[in-house]
Design brief:
Blueprint: H1 3-21, H2 38-59, H3 62-86, H4 95-125, H5 130-151, H6 155-176, H7 179-208
Helix pairs in contact: 2-3, 2-4, 2-5, 3-4, 4-5, 4-6, 5-6, 5-7, 6-7
Length: about 210
């Protein structure tokens, strides 16, 4: 079989094994897929960097330049991590290594999500123009959809990313005082629930295939 076919078969095995280990039907679920989308992860990091760079260019707030630089560092670290994990032989990945892969993914993706969520919250409370806030929230909305497609293998990773992307803007929204900003922030909540549902649907569909 081809490399991709082997990965898909291994994914099913991890799903089956995970149901015995965790009891929640996920366990080691498809951990190989967590490092398979390295270039999509890099693209997501670049979108966040571009978002902060644009806001910095509009506002000249140095904090957004710092956020953009932090995004570059985190993006490069994640790329190195995923390329290293991608060299593993999927035929010898056991339960312990699968958990390490998942933890590495949670840390990297969580940092990226926290950076964007925290940066958006800062934009909301710092009094920048409404268009800059709209840019940040729009990027969050786009990345939430991508979370389901890239990280569906790990329920924990999906939950961490969703929380870090959504909660900071939702908490900061009432501080801004602008009703339109508040509405945009609270619109993230149903999108977050939908992201979790989409990821769960992908896992279930793959487990049953």
């Amino acid at each position: 079989p081809s490399g991709h076919e082997s990965l898909r078969e291994k994914d099913r095995e991890w799903m089956a094994e995970g149901s015995k280990i965790d009891g929640d039907g996920e366990g080691l679920a498809l951990s190989g897929s967590l490092y398979r989308h390295r270039w999509q992860q890099l693209a997501g990091a670049m979108v966040s960097i571009a978002c902060f760079a644009v806001v910095w260019g509009r506002t000249q707030f140095s904090a957004f330049l710092v956020l953009a630089i932090c995004g570059v560092i985190i993006g490069l670290l994640r790329l190195v991590m995923t390329m290293a994990l991608g060299r593993f032989d999927v035929s010898v990945i056991d339960g312990a290594r699968a958990r390490r892969i998942e933890r590495s993914h949670i840390v990297g993706s969580g940092l990226t999500a926290a950076l964007l969520g925290g940066g958006t919250a800062y934009a909301i409370v710092s009094g920048v123009d409404g268009f800059s806030v709209f840019i940040c929230i729009s990027v969050i909305m786009g990345l939430l959809v991508a979370v389901a497609g890239r990280s569906y293998a790990s329920r924990r990773s999906v939950d961490v990313q969703t929380a870090f992307l959504i909660l900071p803007p939702v908490v900061a929204g009432p501080v801004n005082g602008d009703i339109s900003v508040l509405i945009m922030c609270f619109m993230l909540l149903p999108l977050g629930f939908e992201t979790r549902a989409m990821a769960r649907g992908i896992r279930n569909a793959l487990a049953q295939s």
